[in-house]
Amino acid sequence: MGWERPLRPPALAAAPHVWRADLDGLATDVALLDDAERARAARFAFETDRRRFIAERGFQRRLLAAYLDRPAAELAIAPDRYGKPRLAPAGIAFNGSESGGTALIAVARTGEIGVDLEALRPERADLRIARRYFHPEEVRKLESLPLEQQPAAFFAVWTRKEALVKAVGLGLRIPLASFVVGVLPEEAPGPLRYEADWPGTRDWRLVPLPLEPSHLGTLAVAGTLPDPRLFEWAANDA
Length: 238
Ligand SMILES: CC(C)(COP(=O)(O)OP(=O)(O)OC[C@H]1O[C@@H](n2cnc3c(N)ncnc32)[C@H](O)[C@@H]1OP(=O)(O)O)[C@@H](O)C(=O)NCCC(=O)NCCS
Known about the structure:
Elements: E1 3-4, E2 17-22, H1 35-43, H2 47-68, E3 76-79, E4 85-88, E5 93-99, E6 102-108, E7 114-119, H3 127-133, H4 136-144, H5 150-168, E8 179-180, E9 193-194, E10 204-208, E11 215-222, E12 229-232
Helix pairs in contact: 1-2
The site of coenzyme A has 20 residues, from strand 5, strand 7 and helix 5.
């Protein structure tokens, strides 16, 4: 899996698409945003966060508009009752994640999709967080790793779990310890096991995304889907 740089989004077939953008390299176009997005942009305390939010929403709108062949500013995107953003009328499935100025947007023709991205900040890879949220088996495996490998493994586990609960759409209403993901470098990403039967439990597939070493990212899709295609987004795209 490598990152391609097409001029326009290729047609969506069975394979989901994942797009990556460097938000600080994108133009900010407030005119593309709807009232709720503008109100949220106005609430950021820091200018960098406001800028990145506007850039991320512009990226999302331009990307989805290119797939749907509709004007970006006219797309109706709103969170459902659990917070998962949806298009109305539904056209394609999508989910996004942002961390440290990088954004990912995953797109699928149908079904549910989830993506999570985290900047690798070793000081936040805290075993106390792991013990509180992860499955005991995951914690044991994390603790068995050499210290220098633990931060990347922590964020790999975190993004695997977040991507899955975002695909289901319930977010952190799903206890992160209710399913087990791969932790060790030699293990499959999982999910290895489900220990509770929440709505939407099914045959999910987690796909680690090949990112720069400063970030960890995972895609969650239905188990039957092929590997995703990966694309870079740039300011002049679509
Ligand atoms: C909101 C949540 C779904 C993901 O949050 P996150 O990982 O911090 O941030 P991400 O950028 O990956 O995802 C946020 C995006 O997910 C989407 N989202 C929100 N609720 C969602 C849901 N129920 N299902 C799917 N996607 C959802 C939105 O697009 C949201 O973007 P927005 O805030 O700009 O509207 C939720 O799981 C959460 O709050 N997680 C806690 C994160 C945390 O504590 N991380 C610590 C890491 S050590």
